[in-house]
Amino acid sequence: MKVIDVILINTFIFALPIVLSTLGGLIAYKLNIVNIGLEGFMLLGGLFSGLGVYYTKSYVVGLLICLIFSGLIGLIYAFFAIKLKSNFIITGFAINVIAGALSAYILITMDRKDLDLNVVNAENLKLVFSGTENIPILNGLINSHSPMFFITIIIFILLVVIFNSTRFGTYIKVIGENEKAARAQGIKVDLIKYLALILSALIVGLGGFAIAVEQIKLFTPDIIAGTGFIAIAAFYCGNGKPSSSLLYALLFGLAKALAFTLAFNMPQVEGILKIVPYVAIVIVLTVTAIIKRRKSLMRGVYQDE
Amino acid sequence: MFAIKTVALTKKFGEFIANDNISINVEKGKILAIVGENGAGKTTLMNMLYGLLKPTSGEIYVNDEKVDFRSPADAIKHGIGMVHQHFKLVPSLTVYENIFLGNEDVFELDIKYRKDKVFKLKTGFIKKKEEKEIIKNLIEENNFNIDPSKKVKDLTVGAKQKVEILKMLQRNADILIFDEPTAVLIPQEIEEFFENVKKIKEKGKTIIIITHKLKEVMEISDNVYVIKQGKIIDYLKTSNTSEAEIANLMVGRSVLLKVDKKYRDLSNEKVIYRVQNLSTKDKDGKTVVDNVSFEIKSGEILGVAGVEGNGQTPLAHLLTGMMLPTSGDIYYKDQRITSFWPKELRKIGLGIIPEDRYLYGLCEEMSITNNLIASSLDDENICKRGIFQTKEIDRHCDNLIDKYDIRLSEKKGNISSLSGGNAQKIIIARELEKRPDVLICSQPTRGIDIGAIEFIHNSLLNYSKNGKAILLISSEISEIMSLSDRIIVMYKGKIIGEVDAKNTTLEELGLLMGGVGFGSQT
What ipTM, to 2 d.p.? Predict the structure, then answer.
């Protein structure tokens, strides 16, 4: 395989969980909630899908269990954020902490260091379009993707449709922008928030599933490794728009893939290369902020409008 | 039968009685004006009629049917619509999306079951094309001249109000309530608004307008309720009354509707503030202030007139250090002060009264005291080595509250507990007390009641008498004409003309504001 194909395939692999987490996170972001608990949501998604797969040895059952528990976690988060009016930064932080602790605790009670998820042979699930394996770049683009890759594409299209042409999506945007106006129109603000946050958690949970079951094929409490936080940067840079947030998520995926590929070839400096994706994020965030500021001669006004 | 009838309606907020035994009858198909001072309880009354507040006691009847509104949705069901002073629109949505918000037209799937039974499943997909078409027709029907697919954030204030009106018409509201509808409109838009209201009335709808602009009451209403301190004091037929009579009832004393400006000879005074070829761009790169130059002498009030959106706001931002120019300079007593920060400007002797009082002038969620001392924190008497001198501050604030006639509902309250007029007086008190030599003053009386307007006008006039210069930017032509010595008119970012306030006419100014430049240079 050509290097460029390797990088492309790696980009998709690294970007996939970032994209899922970004898409989920941006739903909450549209509600004006920056969910810093994405990392924890993903880890719990990975934990429950891992348990599901480990005990049933079935990809589909693992997926279902992941969805059920992710939805439940979303409901809990929504309950705190809406009913108890908690500070969602602190709630998100709590979820991150609890997710790590719970994963470690469950592994200890099972008397294991990790969960081996190689029981489902994910390699067999990968799709290769026959006849295209030897075409450079195209091979990298369309081949050897896992089922979750296609699920992600479907989710992305669904989100675009939801935000552009459904009542639910419109209400989410309205609530995020002007909650008072939404209430004055008789919109059931709380209900929409619950539904949106649960949907958000489901998608983020799938990100955990992708990492644990499809990619590493192993569950340990540190598999997420910052993916959730990168997702926050992605939807923030993309201004909460699905398409541009997706692009930023892919960009960060590319940065990770580059670092990984380079480290593979230059093991001596592996440690330093690991910081490449994070440096990339800081640079991208700085540049986007500067561009936003440049347009305006106004002083002291950092927000749009 | 009355469209709305209230019987002994009372609303208490704790100890405070906002509405006291209010019984009004709103005649069907007429325009009713409700007038009153700041905090008289007009908006509280309307909020009860619209279901936003629950009455403490009393009854409301709509078309002779007793109602008990739990939310605006209930009021809307009974055909009541309300346009708030601050519009409840969503900026990023289009006109038609805003109108249909909460009431969308969605695709339905017919699911046949058994034999001939059909279950209509609402899909949640919005019929965008159909919605747009309906609104397009509605707009044409009313001659409103707005594009239904434009985003609300790109509309002028006048157009936004039209969207609110369309929203009510689309929902077939029979009783339309307007809270201070003309407060944010420019003269041309006010004319247009009145035309539209009259047209709506011809359709047999009932209209209630809350206002304190008496000229408008006279022009548009059929009947007037005067409300003072939460009580109805009088019910008048508009054709049988006069502005002066209503003003008298409302404020409890005769109000000078015209200020008494004495023109002085300023030819010997020195130029204290000078702006030279100032230009700037907005974030889309459009030149919004274009080569503006002017001078102000000590003791002079220079009015800046113009239809809103012709560069006055960015000009004010430039002069007060909120925005950077692309070229040009500002001089104060021959010192170059271009791009000084607001704090530096205040330090060298400028006072700033910003256009948007809640955005740039005050901190709404902080106490009145903190807002009053906000520009004096460097003063040793107020803050010594970083510690507030509480006693001195209290004395200082009590003094200001007294001197500037600021009416508080609670002594230690936040700015948000004050009415617009009193909030503005806080800014006036804070800025004038520093005795600046030049006062940059934007829209000082926007959206406030006549008592406060009168007070602020007199404060400004008295202040200029002491040899202080004032730059008065306002879209209220009568205010500019009655206070200024000299008037410059802005059009598309440029100064299109300059006139002498003593000798100018409304017609002359109107032409300049419309872009026809022939102003005599003085």
Answer: 0.75
